[in-house]
Design goal:
Helix content: under 10%
Largest sheet: 22 strands, antiparallel, barrel
CATH superfamily of one domain: TonB-dependent receptor, beta-barrel domain
Number of helices: 4
Distance between the termini: 47 Å
CATH class of one domain: Mainly Beta
Shape: globular
Radius of gyration: 26 Å
CATH topology of one domain: Maltoporin, Chain A
CATH architecture of one domain: Beta Barrel
Amino acid sequence: MKMLLIAWMVLSTSCSIYAQNITGYVYEVNTTDTIALSGALVQWKGTSTAALSGEDGRYELSFHHHLPHGLVASFAGYSTQTIQITEATTAPVNFYLQAGTNIDAVTVEGSELASDIDPFAAQKLEVLSANELLKAACCNLSESFENNATIDVSFNDAVTGSKQITLLGLDGTYTQFNWENMPLIRGLGEYYGLNFVPGTAIESIQIGKGAGSVINGYESMAGQINVELQKPDTMDKLYLNGYQNVRGRTELNIQSGQSLNPQWSTGLFVHGNLRSAEQDGNDDTFLDMTKGGQINVFNRWKYVGKNNLRSQFGAKYLYDEQIGGQLQFDKDQAGTSTAYGTFIQSHRAEAFAKTGLIFPEQPYKSVGLIINASRHTQEGFYGNQAMQSSQNSLYANLIGQTVIENSNHTVKYGGNFQYDDIEEQFIETTARREVSVPGAFLEYNYNNQKNINLIAGFRGDYLNVTQSFELSPRIHLKWTTDQENSLRLSAGRGFRVPTLFADNPNVLVSSRSVIYGDLPNIEQSWNYGANLTRYFQIGQSAGTFSTDFYRTVFQEQLVADRFSNAQEVRFNRLEGDSYSNSFQAQVSIEPAQRLEIRAAYKRDDVKQSIQGEVIERELVPKHRGLLNFGYALPFNRMTFDVTGQYVGEQRLPATAIHPNAFENAAYSDDYFRMIAQVSRKIRDWEVYVGGENLTNFKQENPIIGANDPFGVDFDASVVWAPIQGPNIYGGFRYRIKQEQNEK
């Protein structure tokens, strides 16, 4: 802590102060006159910071902390104009919009940090931009966090290929996953949901720590991740992406956006991948990577009416097949003891609609409705045991917004409804839950546009499974001490309904007997957090320093005990303490033009009561570190990225009852992992080549009892490091922009 304070003081001595606000006017341009536009939206590109123009067309908002940065003006039925702001200025910045016409944006070469903290949000929100996602191949959502220190991604086991994230040292089940504020990964989606979102479809990702806004629901316990996908009116007219690695994985993405007229636009996303190679690097007879494939299709539409009505709707369909296990396993042998294998087929269909209305006479008032429905089925075999699951879900959210006296006081209110019908059948167990949760919320935001931004929210939900009314208060406070320093505080309650096997998928690839005790109907926790963020400038170098601490305390929790007996896993209700303490410090800086350096350290202290003893949670590294270097030639003709990751030791589950040949140590080794990528742009084409796990650190023999997979000692769930050596890949990107993108 002393060193952090010293670092903070050093950074404080070398900073420049930007002007307080940027101002200007938004005008309508026609053949005869220039008219002020009232209610136009002026927004810093890629952030939630925005202002509406007044009756005289005037707007005012705070400067972005990193310049140059794009400032965007838009109005329903008019062109969108982007002006690149290169430096703080007191001169007015004016926009001129034409009805149904595209205006070229004023473009100036500049750069912004690919990953940064939203300087205006009351909650700490880390934004991963499109530039960040291009630093790695990012074939899917699970690979979009390779250069990020906040989110950790790991395999659930050594057989099925399913992955999970951790945030604040807690499993991803405690993180609310949304796409454009609609449910993304819930229930059965926790098995392979991270693989179901193609990386090329992602526009940006927002990561929030702690309890999130009450508007989006009750499930944000450790944090929330919101994924913004490409929009029909701004995405490329044609985008092609191809990928191939040395391990036999082939991917192709085709995306197309079309603005049909000033009101209507549509986007089509098609993704396919194939994994056909069979590799066994450690000669344990098991595949190092699953075989199979995926087809993923998504079509979305957007409507912007002249009457301030805006709407989006669309549909998705996905088929995914995963084949793992021994080399000699064939999916036609699924369910037999000829060879051990896993064969999982997933079908998912989803439809959504979002409609919003801004009142012309009162542009500060709006109302919006979000509806999302999905069906997810999953069936297959784990060894000789059949598994069959299904989930039907419906989500609806009605949101109203208004102001009290002036725009410094904003109120959002409404109600939402979440319905899930989940059934899981495995071995001789059938677990079914039909969960219906209607709820209402109220959120007040005070922002004096100077140094205080307060969000206080309250929601109430009725759960049919407990026949109880659950209250969730949440508060976020941002205090800007000066133009460079911000202090954020947060507190809030969250809860969720657990799903037995989806929350604990590694149980399915183990011979451990499953013992059921007293199971909780819900899991609930309180989260408290504090964050200090400093934006600094040393000479011409802009940077961000952030440090935070978050504590999560559980009142109720589903406990999977894999410590008491090496041949059992016991599910029980929490009796005693369960908590997570997470500390993180990170600095991002551009020491030279187009050179970005990011360094981070994280410590997670996660403990849980097992059989009356408070012990460390398994497979959670206490210490993590990250160092990233990114450099680009002028106009991004070539980009170079190198990332090193340090992963500390992890507590391992009990294996003491196994024969000595299968007995693990109490803790894993620590290790260092490196990834790198180089890309080259040639007009509309871009080619890239990269490598993962270039340090070639591998967990030796990740499968316990691999020589007898149907025996009592078999366990493929203890994975704490990569199980594959270096992976070299290459690919291409080709794009043709829509006319309105050529600004």
